[in-house]
Amino acid sequence: MDKLREILIGHLSVLIKDKSVLKAFEKVSREDFVPEELKEYAYLDKPLPIGEEATISQPTTVAIMTEALEVDKGHKVLEIGTGSGYQAAILSKLVGPGKVYTVEINKTLAKRAKETLKSYKNIQVFSKDGSEGLPEQAPFDRIIVTAGAPEEPLSLLDQLTDPGIMLVPVGVGTQILKKYIKDKMVVVEDLGVFAFVPLKKT
Ligand code: SAH
Question: What is the rounded distance in angstroms from the CA atom of residue 109 to the CA atom of residue 122?
């Protein structure tokens, strides 16, 4: 596994310039976040099914999003779409002593992620619909949505600090990954086309 992880990180290092992001990938074992029968594929650069119609995102996607989020130590981060908990684990290594708040709508996945992440003391998993964010814990320095939003969830910008950064894949079927940079005003950048499972609403 160590060799496979090294190969994957070598592959990611071609794309990712931020050394602290690559370090986080070294620290987190992706095999801990995939189902038992798929562990041998944990270090392939592929999304993998985790049940409940959800997937653990492809490592390249997690790496691109993590770098684009520009997280710093001490940041308070909101993730919408915990899934396996892998993205939250990577973020937690970068923000410590800051905290990651992660919201999962599917009860089974939320319960499982709580278990997987129990040794990560700076991650809190919330079992609820995150499509309206987490107003009771706002504001956040960073917000990352890891499910495809059918429309731009602009109301989430109210839960972002100023300055702050929010990443959201927007679209139905495939999505454009949008980066919202808030600094008195909001500037939006498009980071390319990705495919996520859809953001649900209760
Ligand atoms: N970040 C995850 C992958 C996310 S897959 C990882 O690292 O493994 C997208 C997840 O978003 C799925 O688990 C899905 O159940 C969840 N989701 C969809 N709609 C949601 C909503 N409204 N609120 C919270 N989670 C949601």
Answer: 19
Burial of 97 (0-12, 13-18, 19+ CB in 10 A): exposed
Any ligand 1 atom below 6 A from CB of 116: no
Q: What is the pLDDT of residues 162-202, one digit of tens each?
A: 999 999 999 999 999 999 999 999 999 999 999 999 999 88
Domains of the chain: 60-194 (3.40.50.150)
What digits encode the pLDDT tens for the residues 41-86? 999 999 999 999 999 999 999 999 999 999 999 999 999 999 999 9
Tally of CB atoms within 10 A around 53? 11
What is the best residue among 146, 194, 196 to mutate for testing ligand 1's pocket, by most ligand atoms within 8 Å of CB?
146
Q: Check: pTM over 0.90? Answer yes or no.
A: yes
E-strand spans in 68-199? 76-80, 99-104, 123-127, 140-145, 160-170, 175-183, 185-194
Residue 40: partners with Cβ closer than 8 Å, 6 or more residues away = none
Q: Are strands 175-183 and 185-194 parallel, antiparallel or unpaired?
A: antiparallel
What is the spatial distance between Cα 63 and Cα 147, in angstroms, rounded to a whole number? Answer: 16
For Cα atoms 195, 196, 198, give the angle at the middle one, nearest 5 degrees: 130
